[in-house]
Amino acid sequence: MPAPNAVQPPAAAPVTVPFLDRDHSILAFNERVLDWAHRPDVPLLERLRFLCIVSSNLDEFFEVRAAPHLTALQNNDRKGLYTVESFTALAAAAHELVDRQYALYNDDLMPTFEKHGIKIVSHGERHLAQRRWVKDYFEREVRPLLIPVGLDPAHPFPQVANKSLNFIVRLSGRDAFGRENDIAIVKVPRVLPRLIRMPDKVSDHKTLFVSLSSVIRAHLAELFPGREVGQFSQFRVTRHSDLAVDEDDVQNLRTALRQGLQHRHYGQAVRLEVSAGCSEHLSSFLLKQFNLPAQALYRVHGPVNLVRLTQLVDLVDEPRLRFAPYKPCYPVQLMPGQSFFDQLTQGDVLIHQPFESFDGVLAFLREAVNDPQVLAIKQTIYRTGADSALMDLLREAVRRGKEVTAVVELKARFDEEANINWAEMLESIGAQVVYGVVGLKTHAKMLLVTRREGRQLRRYAHLSTGNYNPRTARLYTDLSYLTADPLLTADIENVFVHLASQSRLPRLNRLWLAPFHLHRKLIEKIDALGAAAAQGQPARIVAKMNALTDEALMLALVRAGQRGVKIDLIVRGACMLPAQLPGITANIRVRSVIGRFLEHSRVFYFRCADQEDLYLSSADWMNRNMLRRVELAWPVTDAALRQRIIDECLVAYLHDGLDAWDLGPDGTYTRVGSGDRQPGHGAQAALMDRYGAREGAGDEASWI
User: Fold this and answer.
1) Alpha-carbon span 691 to 686, nearest angstrom
2) Among 174, 229, 590, 639, who pairs with 579 as Cys (CB 3.0-4.6 Å)?
3) Is 127 a catalytic residue?
4) Where is the Polyphosphate kinase C-terminal domain (predicted)?
């Protein structure tokens, strides 16, 4: 069923709004993440972890966002959203961010690690005993997996996989057949660890490592007997990796996606990383092979894949260099040992993750699986991970004879393979598996349990702002909502029926559903507050989300602000709406909070005089979420729960004096507490203290 037409704002904005650039806003978000790697109050291993997070984010940025800009450059496009100028500006910003990363890595982090007796030892720094150990490791573990490829007409440039480590080598002399082919490529298998800890016998009582690239570099000559190795460099190419499948033109979406996954690693090249010392001859040769312009070349002073340095974080056993362990408490509203079904008949339950444990959600599903009175379980699956206790419970539910329906989103970016595997597993044991609606992604997070109670059937549900992955539920802030509200659960049942049958959706009682109602309802809500403010009534909007890029919603906010509504937006990542712009957004403040945990919850608060409404949602305020995805927003009708969400998710973040950044009218972010202002308390730290006091220390958690 096609998505409905885009909602148009009721009236044109009184002035032109100079929206900020989305891609530059994404890079600005990563600048804020990188700040954590600079902060002296952050433990050293965690600083390195945040540096790696930035590299991981940049990888995804290039894989998903860079190709249209690059294509515009190659086509010499000068008009439109993607142009020669947009590519040039974006490349300059990305280069600056990467340069900052490696400067921090070389000038601050690595010297500080060395002060703690932890070091990645280069070939030139290794003494004789260490070199002997490295040579033995190379011969035993590495060399058997390497096959150098000399380039000639019979051996063209090999296929190089996305983000893989490789070496390019320039050789002198002649090969075994008397030819002067001078370029060879060495592809490094992904199965090899990128960091290897040297044993105590050669570590001089320190924690010493060697990088795989250094091991190979030191023994390149041995891979080419009879030839002399001259110039060489490690290199890594990033490729466009967003799968594109024409759903209207395929018979089987699952099969088409699986075939597409085979080609993902070899898509259009968009970035080339080489060692800083790579010669012009070799870098030019590589740029030509990958059809890339000079601006796509990144010369780095260190490993070409900083992401893999997360291995160092995992390999170093130094608790003092990590965050103090944090263990979430069991959800405070739940009574251990008491049936969920009994508790939910008394009222709704809120779980604030990761401060409260996701185990409460698993316990709800586990009870449903084990309860003989439960007849059916329906659930959406977006990202559950490759190893999921939740999926094991669904499998057990099928084994116990319950009707299990899983709406599996096969197109969840970079989780396609895991979701295909789960879909095939569930189908093979008899679950009903559907893939949502053609042309839309099912991003809503909902779980519905139908239970026989006497002569009637009663429904119980779980909704979430964005998590059914037990691992990331420990690392992301999200809100889980358990309810037996008959109106809300009836809505959820109708949405599941709609997704499975694609029949017409009946009028919903409480849910706002994208792509049908959510966009329109939000704009209507914002405009209604603007009208009330124009009549002299106090009006307030506070909205917390991951991204704000939808033009119609931004224009609605501008209209409301100009009519007197006081608006605070807590936007973690990309935000295209400039704040505090005189005459345009003077009543709108925007802040971003970057904490130990990844901010992920979506909360929308509207107040007019004494009337307040609060919605939780799976959707960011982006055009794709509003018009090209199945998303939910639902009201919190319980006054106590509503106040708890206001206090913990809105007020605390508006008063964050440690991890918050305020957006200015020119698109720049200023960290709260910088300059003459003294830093205050962080919202996440306060919530950890509040909930941690209930449970005590436990497993470590931070977001990557």
Assistant:
1) 9
2) 590
3) no
4) 340-503, 511-678
